[in-house]
Amino acid sequence: MNLKTVMVVLGTISSLSVAGAGAQAAGALRVRGTVVSFKPTLLTVKTRQGDTDAIKLKAGWKISGVANASATGIKQGDFLGIASVSKADGGSGALEVVVFPAALKGTGEGDRPWDLQPNSRMTNGTVADVTDISGRSVTLTYDNGQTKKISIPDTTPVVTFAPATPTDLKPGATVFVTAERGSDGALSASRVVVGTNGVVPPM
Predict the structure, then answer these.
(1) Mean pLDDT estimate for the chain
(2) If you count DSSP H runs as helices and E runs as strands, how many of each does the chain have, helices first?
(3) Residues 124, 112: contact at Cβ < 8 Å?
(4) Contact criterion met (CB below 8 Å) for 98 and 106
(5) Residue 140 pLDDT greater than 90, yes or no
(6) Residue 19 CA from chain centroid, whole number
(7) Residues 6 or more apart from 199 whose CB is under 8 A from it?
(8) C-alpha angle 89/84/121, rounded to 5°?
(9) Strand 110-113 to strand 121-131: parallel, antiparallel, or no bridges (unpaired)?
(10) Tens of pLDDT along 109-137?
C-alpha cells in the first residue's frame, strides 16, 4: 500500500468516525444494504429493510473497504469501535468489532446508541484490559475514564479498514453509508464503505 493510498484510507476512516459520532444529528441516518447501481454521482442501494435508496455522492466523496482482523490480535492500547448489546446475564456482548489504525486513535471516542440491532450501542475507546476467561473480553476506556467491558464471541466479525475504489461498487456489493436527508427528502453522503474480497462491512 503506497503513501497516497494510506492517506485516502485514513481520510475515509476519519470521516466515517466523525459522522458516526454525530449520527444523532437531525437528518442523519445509516444505510446498510447492497448496490443496485452506481453512477459517478449517484449510488442506488437496496437496504436491508427491502427499500431502495438513491444516494447522491458529494463532491470529493471517499470510499473504503474492510479486511478481516482477529480478536486474538487485540491488545492493550488498541483503539476499537464495538457495536454491542446487553446480555441477559449482565455485561455487553459484541455484535461487531472495528480495529482502528493507530493514527486515528481517539476518533469518535465515546458510547452512543446504535442501530445495528434493537437496543445496540456503539463504543469507541482504548483497550485498557484483555481477558480470556470463558472467551475473550475487552475493557474499553473513553470520555475521561469511563469504562465498559465487552465480551467478544468467537462468531463476532472483526475487521479493519482497507483500500477500495469506485469500481468495487458493483451490483450486489454490500455497503455501509452514513447519509444525510435534506429538507427535500433526498439522501446525500460523502463516504461509502464497501465489501471487497468476500469481507462485508459489519457495522
Answers:
(1) 88
(2) 1, 12
(3) no
(4) no
(5) yes
(6) 10
(7) 65, 66, 67, 68, 159, 162
(8) 115
(9) antiparallel
(10) 999 999 999 999 999 999 999 998 778 99
Sign for the CA dihedral angle at 188, 197, 127, 135 comes to positive
Q: How far is CA 136 from CA 93, 151, 152, 153, in A?
A: 10, 6, 6, 7
Residue tagged 474499553 (cell numbers): 140
CA distances from 160 to 54, 68, 150, 172, 193 (A): 27, 6, 18, 21, 11
Q: Are 99 and 78 in contact (CB under 8 A)?
A: yes
Contact 194, 174 (CB under 8 A): yes
Cell of 73: 490480535
Sequence-separated contacts (24+) of 162-166 with Cβ below 8 Å: 162/9, 162/64, 162/65, 162/66, 162/67, 162/196, 162/199, 163/1, 163/5, 163/8, 163/9, 163/64, 163/65, 164/63, 164/64, 164/65, 164/193, 164/194, 164/196, 165/63, 166/38, 166/40, 166/63
* Residue that wins the pLDDT comparison between 24 and 82: 82
* pTM, to two decimals: 0.85
